[in-house]
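Why FdtA/QdtA family cupin domain-containing protein? Reviewers of the renewal asked for a concrete example.
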Amino acid sequence: MSLIKVLNFKPLGDDRGDLVALEELVDIPFAMKRVYYVFRTERGVSRGFHAHKNLKQVAVCVTGSCDFLLDDGTTRETITLDSSTKGILIEGIVWREMHNFSDDCVLMVIASEHYDESDYIRNYDNFLKIANKN
Ligand code: T46
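Here is what the prediction returned.
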C-alpha cells in the first residue's frame, strides 16, 4: 500500500472558471480546526523536516507546485503536488519534507488540530525510534 494517499477534489467549473469546495467529513476526512498556507518560498529552500505525534493534514498546492516527501521510517515516497484539485492526506507518524517550490507556489494545508509546537518531532533519530515502535 502506498504511503501517499491522494485525494481528488471535484472542480465545480463553469464558463467563468473553476471552483473547488472542501467540506469537513466529505472531502476532508477529519474535523478541520486550522488552515495555513505557505507562499513566496525562496528558490532552493526546502521546508518541513519533522513529523507529528497526533495530527492529520491535507495538503494542496492551490497554485504552482512543490514536491512532498513522506517517510514512515521504513519507506520514503515523493509526490509532486501541482494541481488545485489534487491533495494528499498526511496522518500517523510520518516524516515530511517539502522541496522544489515553484516561484508561484501557494501550498495550503488543512489541519485537524490547532497549532501545538509540542506535537512536533523535529529530530530524525527520535522520529525513527517512535516510528519503529508503532
Ligand atoms: C507541516 C508542514 C507541511 C504557527 O505559528 N502556526 C501554524 O499553524 C504553523 C503551521 C506554523 N506556525 C509558526 C511556527 C514557525 O515559527 O510558523 C513558523 C513556520 O512553521 P514551520 O517551520 O513549522 O513551517 P514548515 O513549512 O516547515 O512546516 C509546516 C507545518 O508547521 C507542519 O505542521 O506539516 O508545514
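Helices lie at 124-133. This is the kind of structural detail the renewal will allow us to pursue systematically.
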